[in-house]
Amino acid sequence: MAPRLLFVYLSSLLLLSLLWESQGVSSSAVSIANGQSKIAFPYGSRQGSLRPAECSPRCAARCSGTAYKKPCLFYCNKCCAKCLCVPPGTYGNKQMCPCYNNWKTKRGGPKCP
């Protein structure tokens, strides 16, 4: 009886994992397709992937961890209006949006938070 229950349990786990993969849900951000790696980027983190109306909530999330909310929101919204993307998270990840990353101040510092 025990081997039969173990077989049923393992079979159901295998079936669930196959269904999970067929739904397109992957445990990693990198998937292999046709011999080439393909990186899955979160929505809104690639240049031009947002609409202007989506900038404000994205910037609110981006600036949620700073003590300087007003300037952060101002510059984030300005950068989003130009680039139409906001990097994920509250800090870093600017490499995902090159326009956001490469826009500099007169002094050469980063313009976008």
What does this molecule look like?
There is one protein chain. The chain is mainly alpha-helical. The protein is built from four helices and two strands. It has helices spanning 2-22, 55-62, 69-83, 98-102, and strands at 30-33, 36-39. The protein has a two-stranded antiparallel ribbon with strand order 1-2. β1 and β2 form a beta hairpin. α2 crosses α3 (69-83). It is elongated and about 75 Å long. Residues 24-33 have low confidence and may be disordered.
What are the key terms here?
113 residues; two-stranded antiparallel sheet; 4 helices
Q: How are the elements arranged and paired?
A:
Layout: H1 2-22, E1 30-33, E2 36-39, H2 55-62, H3 69-83, H4 98-102
Helix pairs in contact: 2-3
**Mean of the pLDDT scores?**
77
Oligomerization state of this entry?
A: single chain
The succession of helices and strands, N to C, reads HEEHHH
End-to-end CA span: 61 Å
As residue ranges, the low-confidence spans are 24-33
Q: What's the helical proportion of residues?
A: 40-55%
* Strand line-up in the sheet with most strands: 1-2
Strand content: 5-15%
Q: Structural class, from helix and strand content?
A: mainly alpha
Give the CA-based shape: elongated
The helix count comes to: 4
Q: What radius of gyration results from the CA coordinates?
A: 21 Å
- Biggest sheet descriptor: 2 strands, antiparallel
The number of E-state strands comes to 2
